[in-house]
Amino acid sequence: MRDKSQLLSQIHPARDILSISSHVVHGKVGNDAIQFPLNTRHWNVDCIHTTNLSNHPGYKQFKGSKSSPALIESLFEGVRDIKLQYDAAIVGYVASKDILETIYQKILLQLAEDTIVVVDPIMGDNGRLYVEEALVVLYKEIFSDERCENLIDLVTPNQFEMEMLTDIKISDLDTLKDAIRLFFKLYKVKHVVVTSVNFEDSDGMLCIGAKSDGEMYTVSVPKIDAVFSGSGDLFLGILTDRFVKSNGDLAGSLKHTVSVVHKVLEITYELGIDQPPKRYVDGKPYVPALRLVESRRFLQEDYIVKCGVTTDTTFL
Amino acid sequence: MRDKSQLLSQIHPARDILSISSHVVHGKVGNDAIQFPLNTRHWNVDCIHTTNLSNHPGYKQFKGSKSSPALIESLFEGVRDIKLQYDAAIVGYVASKDILETIYQKILLQLAEDTIVVVDPIMGDNGRLYVEEALVVLYKEIFSDERCENLIDLVTPNQFEMEMLTDIKISDLDTLKDAIRLFFKLYKVKHVVVTSVNFEDSDGMLCIGAKSDGEMYTVSVPKIDAVFSGSGDLFLGILTDRFVKSNGDLAGSLKHTVSVVHKVLEITYELGIDQPPKRYVDGKPYVPALRLVESRRFLQEDYIVKCGVTTDTTFL
């Protein structure tokens, strides 16, 4: 108090983000994979939870329930009544068509125009759909809605979700480019990032960033021979942070995000691989909880991650 | 992966805590004031939310609802089914007698014996009760229950709550000591911390730590001329961290906690006092949201806080 200017000079300003995703008591998925990393990167994270579960289904059993669309709508109304503006908003795991409908109509369309909106259309992975079919149809409707053009800045499907959105089977770089071209033809979204792309003949995993004007960035990262839950949610949070703070530098944001997530997965693998319960998914060891707290110093925005990431810029 | 031992040498091990308190979308109270500071201090924080509100009532309006006792019970059952042991558990804001009954019977009594349990009996402040009267009765019943003796390690009432628990009006050091003596006579709890003690004739605010064997520590901290929401929750989180990690060094834990909370309140005051909506409570400016993200470096356990804290050790 005595020396206000000295005190304030030590303070890093915070931004405000609304994150709409799942909540689990135990484990690191959904908002529980997004909030701490973004807090560490100077974001106040306002969480609306689409679920209230004991843990994620990767543990094979769980209790709790989805949030009702009425509760979700009402929570946002309450927040809007006292605080009008967010720098960014994230939409992650959405349990049903009804909830997504509410989020789009009652929340996203009510946000201020300069709020950066990033949507992860979480539908499935590795060839398996794990949401209701109607949700896929609704994502397509929303992304092709004219009001979406100045609303949703970035969409982050994984390979399987990109296939669902475009009805194109992605098996190599050519079919991936076909899918991205069709994506921009069908949908009124300016940027897309396709995560976790695996081609049969490649050692590494690819993440692709593309803009509607035809620029495309390829980031390659070594595969870790295990299955994790929550890595997509962590990816979403870190990418949103970089994308907003860099004013839309998609290539730089993507490279940084892939590096950070890879580092966290490495730490999670090393700390978690020997621990029970041992389980295998698709022949690979399954590690149910990301080690975010243990990875804290690598999550900070000023940490320079060095891992085997290579990037490439091409055009569609 | 190539150099596992080097990677692991950079990792600080995490502990596991169950935190049962309120959730608000916007603002920093309850679990939203506990989770980030404890994450920063290397705790995995499993949150069971007793409310799901848009914001705390200090904003004068809010939406959302309390969690049902059935949901709270079911969430813990789900967690217990996959993960048996916590290093510590916190009970913070509990909205009703039914919920507290469930937390005690279905959660606390089911925890492993060596889990450190800290309960903040949140009932009111500044002479005002803001929960149902039946909750006060239930706290008294729980703290005097014989099973409590090896269960609840520390209870953290504020001055008003200590008055409610002991039916003694605390107006000076003598009546405070009377209340603490009676507390240990009535209740089967080994440690108590009385927070935010204001005597009419004193400049500073006192926090008192006392053990059932008669030791008592007084920590004095300068008053900040404003009213905050969430400071008690932050206090609870930091105190639990220190109390567990120091193996029950109450005096050291109390001094550290008071210092950290004071620093955060200073930062919150300086950043928040000029911002709308301007409102006064009991003639003092009201600052609704703690600046936890902005205070990040001061929340880390290795940060040495220097503020005007004095301590004194006496006996009851």
TrEMBL record, chains A, B:
Cellular component per GO, a single term: cytosol
Residue ranges annotated for the Pyridoxamine kinase/Phosphomethylpyrimidine kinase domain, each copy included: 70-266
Pfam family, one: Phos_pyr_kin
InterPro entries recorded: PM/HMP-P_kinase-1, PyrdxlKinase, Ribokinase-like
Record keywords, A-Z: ATP-binding, Kinase, Nucleotide-binding, Transferase
E.C. numbers: 2.7.1.35
Kinase is among the record's keywords: yes
CDD domains: pyridoxal_pyridoxamine_kinase (cd01173)
Residue ranges the record marks as coiled coil: none
UniProt keyword annotation of Hydrolase present: no
Domain of life: Eukaryota
Any one Gene Ontology molecular-function term assigned to this protein's record: ATP binding
One of the GO BP terms on file: pyridoxal 5'-phosphate salvage
Class of the enzyme per the UniProt entry, highest EC level: transferase
Family according to the record: Belongs to the pyridoxine kinase family.
Protein's UniProt name: pyridoxal kinase
Protein species of origin: Brettanomyces naardenensis (Yeast)
